[in-house]
Design goal:
Helices cover 43% and strands 10% of the residues. Helix 1 crosses helix 4 and helix 3 crosses helix 4. It is of the alpha/beta class. The protein has a six-stranded parallel sheet with strand order 3-2-1-4-5-6, with helices on both faces. The N terminus is likely disordered. The longest helix has 18 residues. The protein has two domains: 151 residues, Rossmann fold; 65 residues, DNA polymerase, domain 1 (Orthogonal Bundle), CATH 1.10.150. The protein starts with 9 loop residues before the first strand and ends in a 12-residue tail after the last helix.
Length: 229
């Protein structure tokens, strides 16, 4: 029987990749835009941008030869991905199941994403009232891997960041969550996530549940990725 009693004060969720399988949408949008300007863009190039602030990704695409202002690159990518999310939201089933359990348990949730509010709103329309706080990339001064997005979420929720669990899937996102002081769980999706002291890395969120989150809050650390790196 589970004896853990330390329930998270809140769960802080990344969106792209973690909750929603939207990274293929982003990579396709980047490839389309690069192709319009005769720029070679591979799947690996797309993976290298996972979790970045959009202006960083826009600058990289510009440097590679996409002859547009960074803001216009960001707008075009956002428009394309938002269009697709409005049509169909590709939930990560393991994350959606955990989200539903967390919400049913009455634990506050925040969405902490480097996507801009327009895309976050397209996703939120599918789950109204689930997230108490939303922090987007266009609402912070320093994006991931800086800790500001997660610290902002905890502050807006009125909880101590050290009493929160953050769930991420990208190198920049996990670095941000870990630096904030949240109990950080990295779930393996598209990108490889480096090991960080005290951070758990999971192949899937399936079966974690609220009881599993309590165990992580009590100091449990699991690294399922050592054997598959």
């Amino acid at each position: 029987m589970n004896t853990h009693t330390s329930r998270p004060a809140a769960v802080l969720w990344d969106m792209d990749g973690t909750l929603v399988d939207s990274e293929p949408y982003w990579i396709a949008a980047e490839s389309e835009l690069a192709r319009d300007f005769g720029v070679s863009w591979t799947h690996e190039d797309g993976l290298s941008l996972v979790g970045n602030p959009l202006t960083v990704s826009g600058t990289i695409l510009q440097d590679r030869g996409v002859d547009l202002p960074v803001d216009e690159i960001v707008d075009r990518l956002l428009h394309r991905v938002t269009e697709q999310v409005r049509e169909s939201i590709p939930w990560q089933p393991d994350a959606r199941a955990l989200l539903d359990e967390v919400v049913a348990a009455g634990i506050p949730c925040a969405l902490v994403t480097m996507s801009y509010r327009t895309l976050a709103d397209a996703m939120l329309a599918h789950v109204p009232g689930v997230f108490d706080v939303v922090v987007t990339g266009d609402a912070v001064t320093h994006g991931k891997p800086h800790p500001e997005p997660f610290l902002t979420a905890a502050q807006r929720l009125g909880v101590d960041i050290h009493d929160c669990v953050a769930i991420e899937d990208s190198p920049s996102g996990t670095a941000s969550a870990h630096a904030s002081g949240a109990v950080t769980i990295a779930v393996k999706r598209e990108a490889d996530v480096p090991s960080l002291q005290g951070m758990s890395r999971l192949r899937t969120l399936e079966g974690v549940g609220v009881s599993g989150l309590r165990a992580f809050m009590d100091g449990r650390v699991i690294d399922d990725l050592v054997a598959i790196r």
